[in-house]
Specification:
The chain contains 19 helices and no strands. The protein has 469 residues and is mainly α. It is a multi-pass membrane protein.
């Protein structure tokens, strides 16, 4: 599985390329695709539905929780943007980890992320199928999941441009939906929406106040909000298949920054201002539905179901793409079965098929082993995104110093206040680990994800020693 190394343009130790004869990807993504992938990546079902759990725990202080976690995500994306603009690669942070730390690190973070995306594909398929069977009762969920799998399998097998078009329009629908929600919500908060009265600060200060469940509730809300941000990483993977990768990733990362604050923090502020945080509907049907229902907008449930369905299908599409590209990159660097890295017409079709098949296997496990294997699989990937962020931060800390010594002109995107903010982000992640260990609901996830990471790291170290000349 090994390949001869080539010099890295960052001046880091030699690392096998993730492109080469028979492995070259096409460059069919346009700037508009990348911009929408970056935007769509932060607007998912975690925001539309999962945020209700955070609101129930933290109350109005969920706005602070999303602001804090959003700041951390912005720092991580800035670090990743710096490295990806300097060295665009479809393996993204896996390639950067290999260059900075060693092949074992690239192996560990790459395959952990692949498993995470494949499991997520299955979960999103199940969620989308539940919505459709609610509209068409009596139809089997597995059949809808299979239909969605076939649809996105076809899109990803065809060409990267086809994937880009799917994701562009999915993301456009999500952005339009949340923008309309924010406009209506702000008008209602100001008392300018016909038929509604300005709520003032009643919902922010009543029913226990801004921090109704104390610091413990804020911590639970923080952990719930943190993992809702997953998905932004895909844009740095996709940038390698654009016509101008450096400009593409730089622009996409920069434009995504302030929109994180607008979409997440802004929408949470609107929801908790309009609706009492203790309203059962916030958790039962989601905070966005509860807000629309409060505004008297007819058929609010169906509107939100359509938006959530689009968000889930968009995530399926993006995760099949991201998993296949990560697998191809790992194989091209000698860290996986060679057959998985075969590229045809600029598309890693074998990797697309295997990634989709693994995702569908997760769906079947949810039916076959719902009480043991499936929950274990969910726990195993629960904290993987935090592991990815730690590898990103450590890699940026090392590679930035190398770039400044060797080729500083490649720093098209620069991490703010380096190295201070990078170190601060790492300390914040360490603090999140401690918080997860203290919470019964997240402790199992952290331990299971830690076991997966440790197992992959052990395999990676053995593989690295085996390939060492």
């Amino acid at each position: 599985m090994s390949r001869p190394p080539t010099p890295s343009p960052t001046g880091s130790p030699a690392v096998a390329p993730d492109t080469g004869p028979g492995t070259a990807l096409s460059h069919g993504l346009k700037q508009r695709h990348l911009s929408m992938i970056a935007l769509g990546g932060v607007i998912g079902a975690g925001l539309f539905v999962g945020s209700g759990t955070g609101i129930a725990a933290a109350g109005p202080s969920i706005v602070v929780a999303y602001a804090v976690s959003g700041l951390l995500v912005m720092l991580v994306m800035r670090m990743l943007g710096e490295m990806s603009a300097a060295d665009p690669a479809s393996g993204s942070f896996s390639v950067h980890a290999e260059r900075a730390i060693g092949p074992w690190a690239g192996f560990t973070v790459g395959w952990a992320f692949w498993v995470l995306l494949c499991v997520a594909v299955g979960l999103e398929g199940i969620g989308a199928a539940k919505i459709v069977t609610g509209w068409l009762p009596g139809t089997p969920e597995w059949a809808w999941v299979a239909l969605f799998m076939v649809m996105f399998l076809g899109a990803n097998l065809a060409s990267v441009a086809r994937f880009g078009e799917f994701e562009f329009w999915f993301a456009a629908l999500k952005v339009t939906a949340i923008t309309l929600f924010l406009v209506l919500g702000v008008l209602a908060v100001l008392g300018l929406l016909p038929g509604t009265d300005a709520p003032g600060t009643a919902n922010l200060s009543g029913a226990g106040g801004f921090l109704p469940n104390g610091a413990e509730g804020l911590v639970i809300g923080l952990l719930a909000s943190l993992f809702a941000y997953g998905g932004l990483e895909t844009v740095t993977i996709a940038a390698a298949e654009s016509k101008d990768p450096v400009r593409g990733v730089a622009t996409a990362v920069r434009t995504a920054m302030w929109r994180i604050a607008l979409f997440y923090v802004g929408s949470m502020a609107v929801v908790v201002t309009l609706v009492p945080w203790s309203d059962p509907e916030v958790v039962a049907v989601g905070p966005f539905y509860a807000a629309l229902d409060h505004l008297g907008i007819g058929r609010a449930a169906q509107i939100m179901n359509v938006v959530i369905l689009v968000a889930l299908l968009s995530a399926m599409n993006a995760n099949i793409y991201g998993a296949s590209r990560m697998a191809r990159s790992l194989v091209a660097r000698g860290q996986g079965p060679r057959r998985l890295g075969r590229v045809s017409a600029g598309v890693p079709r074998t990797a697309v098929l295997v990634s989709s098949a693994f995702g569908f296997l997760c769906v079947l496990l949810s039916y076959w082993r719902p009480d043991d294997v499936f929950p274990w699989l969910l726990n195993m990937t629960g904290a993987v995104i935090l592991v990815v962020w730690i590898f990103i931060a450590v890699s940026q800390l090392i590679l930035r110093a190398r770039l400044e010594r060797g080729t500083p002109e490649r720093l098209v995107v620069r991490m703010w206040l380096f190295p201070g903010l990078t170190v601060a982000a790492l300390l914040a992640m360490a603090g999140i680990f401690v918080l997860m260990l203290r919470q019964p609901g997240t402790r199992d996830q952290l331990l299971a994800s830690g076991a997966l990471t440790a197992a992959l790291a052990a395999i990676g170290v053995v593989h690295q020693r085996h390939d060492r000349p």
